[in-house]
Amino acid sequence: MTPRSTTRSWLLSLALLAGGPALAQPQPSATAPFFDTHVTPAVTKLPLFEVKSPDKQLSPYTGLARRHWQDAARYLLAGAFSYVHTLDDPMQFPKQPGKSYPRNAGQVPTEKLEGLCRTLFMAAPLLKEDPGLTLNGVKVGDYYRHQLAQLVNPASLAYIQPRAKDGGPSQNLVEFGGLSVALFAAPEILWDPLPKATKDALAATMLSYGDGPTVPQNWRYFNLFILSFYQSRGYAVNEKLMAEYLQKQLTHYRGEGWYHDAPTFDYYSMWAFQMYGRLWSEYYGRAHYPEVAAQLTANFAPLKDTYPYMFGRDGSMIMWGRSITYRFAAVVPFPLMGLQPQAGTNFGWMRRIASGTLMQFLENPDFLQDNIPTLGFYGPFDPAVQAYSCRGSVFWMSKAFLGLLVPADSPFWTATENDGPWSKDIATGTVFNKFEPGPNILVTDYPNCGAAEIRVTSVQDKSDPYRGNESYNRLSYNSAFPWQADGPNGEVAMDYVFKNKDNKWEPLRLYAFRKFEAGVYYRDAELESNKDIKLHLADVTLPNGILRVDQSYSSEAAALRLGHYALPNLTGTIRRTTRKVKGHEVQLIDNGTYQLAMVPLSGWDKLETLTTTGLHPVKPESAIINAVGRVSANQPTLFAALLLWKKAGQPWTDDELMPVKKIKPSKDGSVAVAFSDGSSKTIKFN
C-alpha cells in the first residue's frame, strides 16, 4: 500500500483498512477475479482441541485452569507454525474465498505482517515462561527475532517500508501498534537480544508510523504504544503528540465501562480501548502519565458490574458488531482485572465466563480450517467478514491470551469458578434487565434458557460503511441465536424490512434512543432511503422472549416484514408446527436445540415460516418465522407480536405462548398491555 498525502485521498485510494476502520473504503467487486496467494494447506491437520486433565475442583464448570489456557494458546500457535518450516517462512495462510484481502500482490506484505504481529499476542506470554518453546521443529523465539530483523531488511520479502513523509494512516500502523504490545510484554525475549543496528532500524520504521496521523478512534492506541515503547527504551519520540492522543482517547468514554468507537458501540470498546488502556497503564502510563492512567483505571472499574452480564450463563458470547472473527478477544478484560485486583470482583465468575467463551469456539469442529481459524463466527461466513480482514487477521482473538501475562497467583487464576448471579439472583421464571445509561445499552439475561441479549441505540453515522449491515442493525442480539444475514426476498431475522422505492427489501438501520422506563426500552426508527417511513419501537422482555409493541407513523405506504431470530438446521430437519392459542395463530420451529415461536397480536396480516440457505453463520440451511404486513400512509398502525423461545424438548403451555391477555391503544398514543398473570404495563411512546 502507498499512503497518499492526506487522509481524504488515503480513504479514497485505500483498499485495505483493518483493526478499526470507521470511514469508507473501496469494497471488493463481486465480479473481480479471485486473487489467490497459493499458500498450500498444512499437511497435518490439528485435532479438535481437548482439555487434558481438567481441573474440576478449581473450575467445576469448564475444567480450565491457567495451564489449560496455555495449552489453548500453544494449540492455536501450533496451527500457525504448521506453515513455518524455516526462520524465513512468513506467517501466511491459505486465503479464504470471499471479500477478504489480499486482492492484489501489493497487499501481500501487509498480510504477512498481520500474521506475524497478531500471533505474538499468544506467543509472547508463552515465551516469557518457556523461552525454548519449539513448534514444528522451529524455535519460536528465534523465529520472531529473525522475522523482526527481516522487517527492516530491504533485501527481504518481509520488508516494510517506513511511512512516507506525507503518508496517512495504514494497516502497518495497526500491526506495529500490536507489535509494541508484545515488545512491552516480553522485551527480554523479543527486544533485548536484538543487535543495536536492528533495534535502531525498527525504531526508525515503527516511529515513522507511530509519530504520524491516525484514525480518530481506537487507532490512536497504536500510535501511543509505539511512541511509549520507544520512549521507554531511550529513543526520542513526539511526546506532544502522545499527550494529545491520550487526552483524545479519554473523550470517547461514555460510562459503565463503555467507550464509543466513533461512530459505534461494539466489542472494540473491550478488545481495544479497555485492553490497550489497561496494558498501557501497566507498562508505561502509571510511571509517566499517572493522571491519565488513573482515569483509565477508573473507566475500567465498572466493567466487573456490567460487562459479565453480556455473556450467557455458560460464557457464550453474543455475535455482534464488525470484526466478529476476533471472537474470544472480547473476554480479555476479565483476566486483565487480575493485574490490579479490585475489591468486590467475583473472579471465579470472571474466569468462568472467559473460559466458557474460549471453549465456545475451541470445541466447535468448524472453528479451524487448514489449522487456522476461519473468517466467520464458527465456520467460514462471508456476510460477517469485512474487506479489511485477511486470514491472519483472526489472530486478533489471541488478545485473550494476553491474560496469561497476569501472574499465576492472581485471584483471576486462583478463585474457584462460579455462576455468579445466575445461581441465585437471576431466578428461573424471571427476566433480568440491566440498563446502562451512559451508552444507553440494555443487557438482558434469560435464566430459563441461560442466554444473554443486548440492545444498542446510538445514532449511527451514515459515513460508516459497516453500521448499516447485520452486524449493527438488528433490533437485538442474543448469545443463543447468532444473527442471520438478510435474504433478497425479504427474509429477515430480528429486524424490520420494508419494500423501498427501488422495489427492494431494505432493513431498518437508523435507530434513535428514547428512554428506558418501567422495564420498556424505547427507540425511534426510520427507513434510511425514505424518512417518511417511521416507527416508534418498544421492547418488553419476558421470561421466554420479547413482546414487541411498535407503532407506525409513516406518511407513505409500504410493505413490511418483521423477523424472529433464526434457527440453523443442525440435524437435517427443522420441525414446524402451527397452533391456535386463545384465538391467535402461533407458528413454531424446533431444531433439536431450541424452539422459536411467533404470535401476531396486532397489525399483522399473516405469518410465514421460511427455509433459507447460505444466510446463517452456523449451518448452510436455516429457518425463520416472519410476520407480514403493510404500513398505510398517514394512518398510524400498531404492530404487536410475541417473539418467544425455549430449549428443545420443553413443552409449551397456552399461557406461555400467549402471556398477553389484552392490548389496548389509547387516544393519547399510549398502549395498555394486560398480561395473563394479572400484571400490566403501559407503553408510553410520547
UniProtKB/TrEMBL annotation:
Residues 66-418 form the DUF2264 domain. Residues 1-24 form the signal peptide. The keyword Nucleotide-binding does not apply. Transmembrane segments: none annotated. Keywords: Signal. InterPro entries: DUF2264_N, UCP014753. This is DUF2264 domain-containing protein. It comes from Hymenobacter sedentarius. The lineage of its organism: Bacteria, Pseudomonadati, Bacteroidota, Cytophagia, Cytophagales.
